[in-house]
Amino acid sequence: MRVTHVITRLVIGGAQENTIATVLGLQNRPDLQVELIAGPTTGPEGSLESAFAARPELLTILPSLIRPIHPWHDLLAWRRLTAIFRARTPRIVHTHSGKAGILARLAARRAGVPIIIHTVHGPSFGPFQGAFSNLLLRRAEQRAAKVTTHFISVADAMTKQYVAAGVGHAGQYTRIFSGFELEPFLTAHNDPRLRARLGIAPSDFVIGKIARLFHLKGHEDLIAAAPNILRRHIQTKFLLVGDGRLRSRLQEQVRAAGLEKHFIFAGLIPPADVPKFMGVMDVVAHLSRREGLPRALPQALAAGKPVVAYDCDGANEVCLPGETGFLVVPGDVDDLADRLVQLAGAPELREQFGSRGRDFVRQNFSVETMLEKIYALYLKLLETESK
Q: What is the pTM of this model?
């Protein structure tokens, strides 16, 4: 049975890592032929296309499937996807991300694909964008939902938001946490050589953040909180892992505040190196205002690191207040600083949160668990469709 996944682009990010793990993992099932169609990967966020180096036949790049809204390219992408689905006749089309999710679902319906699934990795509409874009994308999601057999949401928060916005109904949704390879994070350690290479002293308290340097990721808030933190805990370093179009602006914000010696811009690193960098962090801050369920949060917990996160979307399903970390109201820079300083002065609390977090992630976030649940959902939908 052929299953065709579609995603807008393969930049380094949680939705993309989830999709690749699903495609390559399910490919090992003897009854499945799984493939991926993606748009071109552009921008400073890096590319994950190399994940298919050993199996290039599983990946098709569709040049017209670009991220920005572009009527001509979007029409071309829809027509090309329709033609591909008609030629390859998949039983299931499984889509990811906003643009590809809408165009590919409509194309799959046009091509007569019997089962159409969409994974909601994060909101494609909401107050984080302008009124017109918000209305346009919400209407597009509502239209695509009419041809969608089932939704997978990476967090219950996504299900609630989409159902409240009239995108499908609650019975169409199944929550499946975004799994990942746990072992590299479970065995992450505080490598003194990496700390030295990054300019981090053995006695420094390290606040880490792993995210693209992009809008709505909250880097500006962490920089704004830094002076308050440093007044109370001077031996603090801020380790920012990731790259993006806001790098120069954020570096200028750091310089303007006189914080250069406290901030480390590590830049883009391969996903395989994330556990190493997580290992030298003492706490992980995740301050995104638009995220389904931030992948960095369960990864941090797997590495035994407490988390401080904005209470946004699905963060509260992993950052359990008083158990694995602290939640902060988005934009409350003072409370953010207070919570990070509290953890800086309480190593036993960090250990307690990290231990509880490891147990929670082991139970919920293995890639094997994710694959089993997705496969079981496929079989259930196929059985229902055949009746």
A: 0.86
